[in-house]
Design a protein that fits this description.
This protein has helices spanning 3-19, 21-42, 44-47, 75-82, 143-146, 148-159, 210-214, 257-268; strands spanning 50-53, 70-73, 86-94, 97-98, 103-104, 117-125, 169-182, 185-198, 229-241, 246-254, 272-275. It has 276 residues and is α+β, with helices and mostly antiparallel strands.
Length: 276
């Protein structure tokens, strides 16, 4: 084979790979692995000597979640949202990629992972160190405050990442209970709720950064309305770490309670939290 022909074939193969849907998946995991590592190193929980290891989609043989859990720091954004100085770190994961679509299942309205996420929030009052975020003085849950990290995440970080203006996320509490022991620590509070918020299927209009990690919304899932308001289920575990003056939340949101239960059993409950 002549060198020129060989080079042409190699170039064609590279071009076909780049324009293929699978390339979006490779780009996503490459970029997000590096960016998450940087965020993890710079997080305030690192300074507090708090480590958490949450399993990703590779922990099961099913096609369920993205391969690994990512970290994002947003002290400034959450401080603006709360109108006081806060420290805020998010761990998150979302539905696995549909390779032929070049995008996450979170766009697929027929999937159990439509709009689904799980992960953790770490919240610390920067100027009010004696305030137990998410809790009242008597130790009971402050429901309104406890829902704020999830509200901020959904409205500002997730939906805002698509350029959606004034999104909604309304919570209806289904149950509140106490759990004696969870992931090796005592005294957790658990909130189960129904959430009315926007679904993720929409028409692609411009190139938002969110598409780097999720892929672009496949046109086959476009409906009559972009980001239709949809009912989701959610579960939040929360505990105040008195020795670190920090509140930890483990969360999951999905279209149905079965997916929540599976996520709890196979991912949240298998998380490893270390407080040094």
């Amino acid at each position: 084979m002549k060198p020129i022909i060989k080079k042409t074939i190699i170039c064609l193969i590279i071009i076909l790979f780049i324009i293929s849907p699978f390339f979006q998946y490779i780009k996503s995991i490459s970029v997000m692995k590096i960016y998450s590592y940087i965020c993890e190193k710079d997080s305030f929980i690192k300074e507090l000597n708090i480590d958490i290891n949450m399993p990703g989609g590779l922990a099961t043989s099913e096609k369920d979640w993205y391969p690994f859990v990512m970290t994002f720091n947003d002290n400034e954004g959450f401080s603006s949202f709360m109108d006081r100085k806060m420290n805020f770190t998010v761990l998150y994961n979302f539905g696995a990629f549909e390779y032929l679509n070049g995008a996450s299942m979170l766009y697929n309205p027929d999937s159990n992972y439509y709009g689904a996420f799980y992960g953790a929030y770490f919240v610390q009052e920067a100027d009010r160190e004696n305030h137990k975020f998410g809790f009242l003085d008597n130790g009971d849950i402050n429901i309104e405050e406890a829902l704020l990290p999830g509200t901020y995440d959904i409205n500002e970080l997730v939906l805002g990442g698509y350029g959606l203006n004034n999104p909604i996320s309304d919570y209806k509490i289904d149950s509140i209970k106490e759990v004696d022991t969870y992931i090796g620590y005592n005294n957790w509070s658990v909130i189960d709720a129904t959430v009315m918020t926007h679904g993720h299927n929409h028409r692609y209009k411009e190139n938002y950064q969110a598409y780097i990690q999720y892929g672009k919304p496949p046109s086959k899932y476009n409906g009559k309305q972009d980001f239709p308001v949809t009912k989701f289920k959610s579960r939040i575990y929360m505990k105040y770490l008195s020795e670190k003056k920090c509140t930890v939340f483990l969360y999951a949101i999905a279209p149905n309670i079965k997916t929540i239960e599976n996520c709890d059993k196979n991912f949240l409950q298998k998380s490893i939290l270390k407080i040094k």
